[in-house]
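Standup notes
- DV: blocked on the single-chain target, sequence here:
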Amino acid sequence: MSTDRERQLQSDSQDLHQFGYAQQLLRDMGGFANFAVSFTVISILTGAIALFGHGLNFGGPAVNGFGWLIVAAFTMLVAASMAEIASAIPTAGAMYHWAAILGGPGWGWFTAWFNFVGQMATTAGIGYTIAQFAVDLLGWQGQANLLILYAAILVSWGLINHYGIRLVSWANEFSVWYHIAVTLAIMIAFLFFAPRQPVSFLFKTGFTTSKYPYAWAFLVGLLQAQWTITGYDASAHITEETVDPRRNAPWGLFLAVVVSAIFGYGLLVAVTLGIQDLAASAAAANPFIDVAERAFGKWWGSAMDWAIMPAMWCCGLSSITANARMTFAFARDKGMPGWRQWCKVSPKFRTPAHAVWLSVALAFVVALYSGAFNVIASLSTIGLYVSYIIPVVLVLRARLSGKWAELGPWNLGKWGFAINAAAILWTAFICVLFVAPPNERTGYTFGALTVLLTVYYLAGVRGRFEGPKKVGTEEDLLKLEAELSA
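- DV (later): unblocked, structure below
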C-alpha cells in the first residue's frame, strides 16, 4: 500500500468518525469501482431489454426514439441533486442519513423505508427477469421451474456478497466492460448485419396495443426507461467502502447515469430499427427475443440473448450489495425491527452478512406477491425515487432559508436551486404516472404501505427513534476498528 493511499484511508476514517461511526466495513473501492457498482445496477442490458416489450406495446417505436431521451435528461437532474448531497454527507445510510440530518429523524425514517422497499423490489425485478429469460430460451414450462431458478439466482448473489466483497468489486469492474462490449456488439449486429428500418421508424407514433389513447399509452411506456435508470444510489450506499468518498461517490453516481443514458440510447436505436414485424414482435411472449431471432435466425438470436444474461446477473449482484449497506446503516441506528441482527458485520469477511441474506429473502417474497413483472418494476421505481427526492426537497428548503451550507467538493453552485426544483417536479410527475391505470395495483400497494408506515411510526416509533446516532466516543470507535482489524 502506498503512503498516499494510507494517508487517504486514514483521512477517510477520521472523516467518518465526525459522523459518529467506526470504519467497520472494508474500505477498498476506488473511484472506478464506485462508478461500476451504480453502472452495473442501472444495467441497460437488464432494464431496457426486460421492459422492451412494455415500451413497444404501449408507445411503439417512439418510446425508444423520444421517450428514453426525455427520461434520461430529467433523471440526470435528480442524479446531480443527489450527488451534491453525497459529497456533503458520505455515509452508508445515504438518503436515510441525508434526510435525517437535514429534516430530523422522522424524515429519515420514512426515507429509509421507502428506499428499503424500492431496493427489494428492484432486486426482485432483476432476478425475475433473468429467470424469465432463461426459461423462455430453454423452453421450460410452469411457474415452479421459474421460481426454482429465481431462488437459485438470489442465493448465488447472497453467497458472493457474504463471502467476498473484493470479488463483488472485481465483478462490478468486469461488468462495466462487459456491458459496454455486449452493447456495442448488439448495436453493430443490428445496424450492419440485419435488415434495417428507415430512421423515421424510430420516431413512429400512433402504435399501441393497449386500450388507452396513444398520448397516455406513450407516457405509460416511459416506465421502460425510468425503471432502467434507477439504482444509482448504490454509489452513495458504498461510500464507507470507497476511498476519498466525497469526490469519488458523487462522480460515480452521476457518471453512471450519464454513461448509461448514452449507451442505452444507442442500444435501443439499433434494436428498434431492427424490428422486422412491429405487430408480431409486440404480440410475442418476449418481444426482444422475437426481434433478435427474426433479425438473425433462431440460433444467433438465442446466442445474443444468452450473452446478455451475465450482465443481468452482475446487475443483481450489485443490487444486493446496495440493499445490504442501506439495511446495515438503518439497523445500526436501531431503525428497524430486529436491528441487532441486521447490523452485524462478519468479523472475517467485513461484510454486513445478515443484511445480505435479509435482502435475498425479501426479494423472493416480493416476486411471489406481485404476480406481474410490471408491478415489480413500477413499485421499485416509485419506492426508490420517493427516497431519492425527499432529501432533495429538504435541501431545497434549506437553500430557501439560507441554511444549506453542507457543500462538499462536488456541488451544484449557483445552479443548485433550479436543478433541485426541476428534479422534484419530475419525480412528482412519474410517481403519479406510475400508479395511474394500468398500474393501479402499484398504487394500491404503495398507498397501503404508506398508511401502514404512518400508523407504525405514530404508534411505536415517534419519540423513540433518534435517527443517526454516534456509535461512541473517538476512543470507542478506534477500539472497535482495532478489534475488527485483529
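- Follow-up: The two ends are 18 Å apart (CA to CA).
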